[in-house]
Amino acid sequence: MRILLTGAAGFLGSHLTASLLERDYQVIGLDDLSTGSKRNLIRFQSNPNFEFVNQDVRLPFNAEVDGILNFACPASPRHYQSDPVRTIETNFLGIINMLHLAKSRGAKLVQASTSEVYGDPSISPQPETYWGNVNPIGIRSCYDEGKRAAETLCFDYRRQFNLDTRVLRIFNTYGPNMSPDDGRVVSNFIVQAITGRDITIYGDGSQTRSFCYVSDLVDGIIKLFEVRNNPESPVNLGNPNEFTMLELAESVLLLTKSKSKIVFEPLPQDDPQQRRPDISRAKMVLDWTPRVQLEEGLQKTIEYFKELIL
Ligand code: UDP
Predict the structure, then answer these.
(1) Span 39-58, pLDDT tens digits
(2) What is the pTM of this model?
(3) 201 lines ligand 1 (CB under 6 A)
(4) Residue 53's closest CA among 16, 108, 107, 8?
(5) DSSP secondary structure string, 165-198?
(6) Domains plus CATH for the chain?
(7) Catalytic member of 143, 157, 174, 213
């Protein structure tokens, strides 16, 4: 089976590429290297089942494919807010291009959506049936609304053209292959701790996130792609264990034995106060549950960053 994976050089894309190749898929990895890195793909260079295409997903792409995994989009607030027009275009034009391709080839399509479709949620944990609490004109909207529009298109193509489209909503994920300047909280705290810089907590650190280790997420994505029956609704993938940012900072300090100080910086606009997935649907339709808990995942991620930057 030939798969087109957009965003292949990114954090998730590179892990997905490895997993797909291990399962004997042929992979076309498309990426414009705007936030992804060629370094993440070096190990696949000599694999005859892997082909890299340097292209922006906002442009049409054509190839003979049986499956499409659409993962191209910066996911860190720092990156997606640095060029918001490009971000919403990447989501909107990207999925339109991929759906056109899926339709013309009769290919199955998996869309990487996000817990950000729930915005600053007023219920916790968040089930897929929750419609969310999203600011349509704020600094996060280019990402949130872009992903929401992409979900709409996937379901419209399913209803109107009977296309096999599947949507996963990814909750905060971390692990090796994140970029040191990614800007998201896990990579920031680890890089700060191992280089002895201050740990920057935004706000008072009482806001929560639920962190999923990348290998667990990738297992869930492959299951969603391969499962015979289309789950019909989006599927949350994440680890339901919830932590405050203060607890995360303390764990990172403990595991790195760092002497870094914790400092408090202003909370960014529209920063969600809580986030925790309800994963009953993933358990039911994919028989999936995350296995790696925070301490083990942080250890592996710390080792990766130490090797990369020390
Ligand atoms: N955050 C923080 N310090 C940092 C980076 C992020 O306290 O150096 C906070 C951020 O304000 C948010 C949480 O950590 O409340 C998760 O942020 P991240 O950018 O990782 O992802 P988000 O879930 O907000 O998209």
Answers:
(1) 999 999 999 999 999 999 99
(2) 0.98
(3) yes
(4) 8
(5) EEEEEE--EE-TT--TT--SHHHHHHHHHHTTPP
(6) 2-173+212-240+276-291 (3.40.50.720)
(7) 143
